[in-house]
Each structure stands twice: as C-alpha cells, then as structure tokens.
Amino acid sequence: MNLSVGHLLPEGKVSEITQKVTSYFENDIWDADDAAFNDFRKSEWGKTHRKMNFSVFPTKLKNEVKFFILTRIQKDDLQLYSAVHNYARSFKQLSKFLKKFYPNINSFADLDINKALVQLRSHLSELGLSIRIYGRRKLSC
C-alpha cells in the first residue's frame, strides 16, 4: 500500500457500488444503443461516439467511475448523451493523469479533489488539450 494513500471506501459504499454495477454495467464498454439504456435515452443522435469505455481505468477505480456515471444518469442529473459526449470522451486523458500523478490510488476518496483538479487542468494545458467550460461547471477533456 502506498503510504501517501491511506483511505479506503467504507464497506457500505463498496456494497452500494457492487449492487449498482451489475449485469450489463459490469462490462467495461457500454453502448448507448443497448437496451439497458432504453429508459434513459432522451433523444437520438448520430452514429458516432455512442460508447463509454471504462477499460482505461485502473481496476480499483473502474467501478467507482461506472457507479458515478450510472447513478447520475439514473437520477437524471446527467443525460445519457452528455455522459457519452462530454464524460466518456475524456476517460483516456483522466486515466493517463491518474496513472502519472496518483499511480497507487485505491479510491477517488483518496484525492484532495481541489488539488487534483488544479493538477489535472495544468496537465491538460501542458499537453495542449482544451479545458472546456459549460455554464458554471468546468469539464476537462
């Protein structure tokens, strides 16, 4: 265990994640056309960028990301279209960032989120990637 990373998710949270991320959602690649998303598809869009690929994340973090996305879609806090087009498209860069700066992280709960966001923005800028702003929320790609 990395001494700089000491937090673990509470057992109740691990159980909640495990119960939510089942059946189709255990797959590392989700296709927005799959019947699992029928209740969450608000509109149709073009045939490109229809998949969310979680395989780029370290095993320890993968289910947390799936849980985050799935819960927000189910609560209607995030449209399926936005999950695919705004979030999933940034997974690869986020994964590279985590592997570089937090290689031994056990959970997103281990992060000082404000520090990590500043680091992520700086990292993306150094790579020449844009940091897009949508309304009041900032999303990095």
Strand order of the largest sheet: 1-2
* Structural Rg: 16 Å
| N-C termini distance | 30 Å
Based on Cα principal axes, name the global outline: globular
Beta percentage is: 5-15%
Q: What's the count of strands? A: 4
Structural class by helix and strand composition: mainly alpha
Give a quick set of tags describing it.
141 residues, mainly alpha, two-stranded antiparallel sheet, 5 helices, 10% strand, globular, disordered N terminus, disordered C terminus
Topology:
Elements (H helix, E strand, L loop, with lengths): L10 H10 L8 E3 L19 E3 L5 H16 L5 H8 L3 H11 L11 H14 L4 E4 L2 E4 L1
Antiparallel strand pairs: 1-2, 3-4
Give a written overview of the molecule.
There is one protein chain. This protein has 141 residues and is mainly alpha-helical. It has helices at residues 11-20, 59-74, 80-87, 91-101, 113-126; strands spanning 29-31, 51-53, 131-134, 137-140. The strands form two sheets. Strands 1-2 form a two-stranded antiparallel ribbon. The chain is globular. Mean pLDDT is 83; it is low at 1-7 and 135-141.
Report a brief summary of the structure.
The chain has 141 residues and is mainly alpha-helical.
